[in-house]
Structures are given as structure tokens and as C-alpha cells.
Amino acid sequence: SRFGSTLPASTTLASSAMKIEEVQSTTKSQRVASHSHIKGLGLGEDGVPLPIAAGLVGQEKAREASGIVVDLIKSKKMAGRALLMAGAPGTGKTALALAIAQDLGVKVPFCPMVGSEVYSSEVKKTEVLMENCRRAIGIRIKETKEVYEGEVTELTPEERPDPAGGYGKKVTAVMIGLKTTKGQKMLKLAPQIYESLQKEKVTAGDIIYIEANSGTARRVGRSDAYATEFD
User: Fold this and answer.
1) Measuring CA to CA, how many Å separate 17 from each of 7, 8, 92, 193?
2) Average pLDDT over residues 155-176
3) Distance between CA 61 and CA 72 in Å, rounded?
4) Has this prediction a pTM greater than 0.70?
5) What torsion do the CA atoms of 101, 102, 108, 112 make, to the nearest 10 degrees?
6) Distance separating alpha carbons of residues 108 and 135, to the nearest angstrom
7) Rounded distance between C-alpha atoms, residue 69 and residue 81, angstroms
8) pLDDT digits (tens, 9 = 90+) for 206-224
9) Which pLDDT belongs to residue 46?
10) In sequence order, what are the residues at sequence separation of 6 or more whose Cβ sits closer than 8 angstroms to the Cβ of residue 78?
């Protein structure tokens, strides 16, 4: 009966023990395919294939010819042309195609196709071809932005009486002075930009960044001339 009184205490300690669980990683695991070890054509600086390099072994003549094709593509002399590789199964046709894409750079997509996908009864052949063509096209978009960046020397809003009536005033524009190492400039900004400047709490001496196209305004930092004001 004396030992029976200690049992509830042991059960209480067991129930109050800390619970530790393992959290599964959310990182997407990459599937190891049959050609995932190929990193390039394995050519030397003179274009001669190395016996074992970049995950490829053998097929020296085909690798050397593929290196010539890579040079033609980089020099933009293969436009409108295609490369046909013929051979028995397992001779390295897909491996050479992947190696060519790897040598061209990470921005060149590699889109393998299987015959069963094209001749599927669910999707039309033209749709499969168009989808793979879209994947294979690499588009580079260049955007030009007009940007104003500098130290704020003046921030003066232009106000007028509210047309809706009342005693309030409405901001119609804001005059702002920006100073850089190259000079100084006065800008007249829309009231919407003034509202974003107020949200950023911009004052004289701040470094701001304004995009002319979108009207985005951000406070980048504080000028060196005002760096010691809080010291």
C-alpha cells in the first residue's frame, strides 16, 4: 500500500514530458533521372573531347561534332536550322542533346519529348507540339525605367481650397528638390506621389528613389551630412 501512493506521481511525470516532433522539409526533392549526371560535352579548351569528363564516356567523334554545333549556336550561325541525331537505342542521343543544352548555359531550356505523349488519344498532336515549343522558347525582356534618386533638399506641397467645400485644403502637386553629386534639380510631382512620400515619412536630408513610370517612391536612407544629428 505504501508503494501504491507513488504510482500516480510517476504517471504525472510521464504525461508532463515535453513532446518533440520532426518537421518534414518543404524543399522540393529533385528526381534523379538517367541523364541527371551530365554537366556538359566534356571537351577540352581546344575542342577535343576528353575520355571521361562532365558525366560522358566515349562517343568522342559525336561529342566533338556537337561542340562545333555549340560554337555555331553561340556565334548565331545556326538560326533556322535543326540537328538530327540518329542511332540505335542506348547510344547516347539524348545524353548528347542534354550536354549541348548544358554547354549553352543555364538560360537555355531542355525539353525532352516522348513519342507516347505526341500520339496520345487525350491531347491533340498540335497541342503537344505547341506546348513544347513554348517551353523551348527563351524570351528576354528588357525594361527601361526613368528613375530619380537623390537627397531631398526641399519638400513643399501646393495646396488650394477644397472644391467640394469646407475649410480643408487639397494638395494639387508637390515641389521637391533633389541634390546629387552631379547637381540639383526641382521636380513637380503628382499628389499621389506626395501621399506615398508621407507614408515613408520623408523629410529634408533623406535619400529617396522615385520611378517616373509607375510613380513608386521609396525612402532609401539618410544623407551623410545629417548622419551625426542623433549622435
Assistant:
1) 16, 15, 58, 57
2) 78
3) 17
4) no
5) 50
6) 10
7) 11
8) 888 888 777 788 888 888 7
9) 81
10) 69, 72
